[in-house]
Specification:
4-stranded mixed β-sheet
Length: 75
């Protein structure tokens, strides 16, 4: 599984990257064929947003969340 993490108006630190990696390691237990994951972390004023596009065995899954805390948005 290949995970790419991109930041818009936020620096993607090693801690954020590791946190995203641990969350998607859990996802890999539920889906056998996770091919590609693209995560976009962004900040707009006080809103922290995490978006993820996941390609799983021929299907594409998209999710996003907005929260005051980036780690909560990733969760």
């Amino acid at each position: 599984m290949q995970i790419s993490v991109t930041g818009h108006h936020v620096e993607v630190t090693e801690a954020l990257r590791n946190y995203v990696d641990t969350k998607f390691d859990k996802l890999e237990r539920h889906f056998d064929q996770v091919i590609d994951v693209h995560v976009i972390l962004s900040v707009e004023k006080l809103r922290q947003k995490a978006e993820a596009s996941i390609q799983v065995n021929g299907a594409k899954v998209y999710a996003d969340e907005v929260h005051d805390d980036m780690y909560a948005a990733i969760d």
